[in-house]
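Morning F.,

Quick status update on the modeling queue. The single chain you submitted on Monday has been processed. Sequence for confirmation:
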Amino acid sequence: MMNFRTAFAILSLFFLSTLVKAQLTMHKMISVGYTYQNQSFGELGGKLLFLKNDDVIYRLGGSALMGVADSKFAIMPKLQADVLLNFEKNVDFYHSYYFLVGAEGTNKYIAPKIGVTLFGMLDLTGGYAFPIGDTRLNGKEMKGLNINFTLNIPTVFIHDMFK
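Structure tokens below.
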């Protein structure tokens, strides 16, 4: 099976190759959420959102998954890449929701995922995690159903709140 570095390199190459075609606007976001991966985890991290128009949006992110596995506190780093899709042209109201396709990976598993997002800020995704080799988190296997609920807060919003 492919190791984490190889999978991440291929995924990064794919998403970065789509970005070099045109100049994109970048926005920074803080992400806070909940992840179920054979165990409950809290998530805290950041994301970069890239867009040229609002039909197809790319997001790259990194975060830390924190939770208790087998009665011991554990932290896992997580990298993710998402593509948000909505092909309604020149109608802002219809761009309140996007379909989301992406993948996330930790040092324990890789999980392709699909879902929906409201305004690119509130994500609900699901997928299936495939373990990397025979790795375990405190003795617990990290494979199976993967569910994410994430709130992405633009840093511009936080900056404007404290003006």
